[in-house]
């Protein structure tokens, strides 16, 4: 797919204020600092579309980007950052749950997982929540440039084993590096295939 246009539309904290539309949208979620905003920039080939930072907690709002006037990418704030207060954690949880529950045009969630880490409880808990809510999702293992292919594959295998303890089937799974632009075509192809044009 060719990205002809990628436009920032709006940021807000409430699902009720998100753009009114029937166009399908794909939301990026995962632990703080996992690389959600960077992946949006890599996919759209616009390095400054979504704001990124080396410090966790950069994205705080629900951010809508309209692609080719035809579908949305949504950048969400991350979870699992140790130094976040209980109040912020609860605010995050309320906002994201409301978004997942009520956003009618949500086609799929891209759940980003740091490919360098062993299975994290916060990720497994979030997958559980998506399952309970019946939200379709795929797993995207990020930052694969940071280590050897063998190490990435070993961590993914560990993650699959952890998932298979509670799930009978595994979701689609992708490996990406925003730094090296790996996985771009695969993700865009997935979007193209599921996009109801
Ligand atoms: P929050 O908005 O805080 O939840 O973080 P985020 O998930 O949006 O992460 P962000 O895209 O801001 O990236 C966090 C840091 O990781 C930045 O310093 C990025 O440059 C870096 N980063 C993201 N993706 C990659 C990658 O594929 N490879 C490498 N080497 N660094 C990456
Ligand atoms: Mg971000």
From TrEMBL:
The keyword Ion transport does not apply. Residues 22-197 form the EngB-type G domain. The keyword Magnesium applies. Its cofactor is Mg(2+). Belongs to the TRAFAC class TrmE-Era-EngA-EngB-Septin-like GTPase superfamily. EngB GTPase family. Necessary for normal cell division and for the maintenance of normal septation. This is Probable GTP-binding protein EngB. The lineage of its organism: Bacteria, Pseudomonadati, Bacteroidota, Cytophagia, Cytophagales. The gene is engB.
């Amino acid at each position: 797919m060719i990205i002809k246009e990628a436009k920032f539309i709006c940021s807000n904290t409430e699902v009720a204020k998100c753009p009114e539309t029937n166009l399908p949208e794909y939301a990026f979620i995962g632990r703080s600092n996992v690389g959600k905003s960077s992946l949006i920039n890599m996919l759209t080939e616009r390095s400054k579309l979504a704001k990124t930072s080396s410090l966790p907690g950069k994205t705080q709002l629900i951010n809508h980007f309209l692609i080719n006037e035809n579908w949305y990418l949504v950048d969400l704030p991350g979870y699992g950052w140790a130094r976040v207060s209980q109040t912020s954690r609860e605010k995050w949880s309320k906002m994201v749950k409301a978004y997942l529950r009520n956003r009618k045009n949500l086609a799929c969630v891209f759940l980003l997982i740091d490919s360098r880490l062993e299975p994290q409880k916060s990720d497994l808990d979030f997958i559980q929540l998506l399952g309970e809510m019946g939200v379709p999702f795929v797993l995207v293992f990020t930052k694969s440039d940071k280590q050897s292919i063998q190490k990435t594959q070993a961590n993914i295998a560990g993650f699959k084993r952890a998932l298979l303890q509670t799930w009978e089937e595994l979701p689609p799974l992708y490996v990406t590096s925003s730094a090296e632009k790996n996985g771009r075509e695969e993700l865009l192809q997935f979007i193209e295939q599921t996009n109801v044009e």
